[in-house]
Here is the input.
Amino acid sequence: MSADGPRRTAPPSSAARADPRLEQLLAHPALWRAGSAVRGAVWSSGFAPLDAGLPGGGWPRSGLIEILPMRFGQGELQLLLPALASLTRRPEARWCIWVAPPLQPFAPALAAAGVALPRLLIVSARGAAALWAFEQALGSGACDCVFAWTRHAPARHIRRLHLAAQRGNTLGVLFRTREAAREASPAMLRVALEPRGDGARVTLLKSRGGARGALDLTWATDAYEPQRMP
Here is the structure.
């Protein structure tokens, strides 16, 4: 005790309080903190109202997102088609891979929509083999985007897929049916899709740094339709 009263010790600075291990964890790209804005690069969806609601103004260039239609073949490809056409036509375009599509892709309609077919690869696989192929493509560094269709995907596997997409600087799109909305998911973005007339109602169920809620989109006059598998 000094003549002026009890001596108070100055509080430690924030730098002194910080644990280096904690700082390293907080800097990890797989960690998202509530209230933080998404600053990553994006691809335009091709739909201005949707871009306005998506984090950063478009589909993320890397990371995993989920699109949940009522059932497969009800508009999920129309939603991605403008971005797919734009990606594949770039001079520096990498591969765009579809893993286990439930319907036969119709090449003439894809070409008419502007998709550069030489940049597109289709992988036929099912079950665990499809998820394995999806993860390998995401992390390869050779793809701009990878699509996969599955009805069942454990949350722990979705987290691995998200990290693989970040590692490969790739947009990963996992298509699951609407029932999956009841399950928790580590995906950075979850979009529900419901057909409505000549378009669809898009609901942003989970959107890190973006909007939440529903909006209606109208497809192009000659909307792409896949073929049924034989």
In short: Residues 76-88 form the longest helix (13 residues). Residues 49-218 form a domain with the Rossmann fold fold (CATH 3.40.50.300). The longest strand covers residues 199-207.
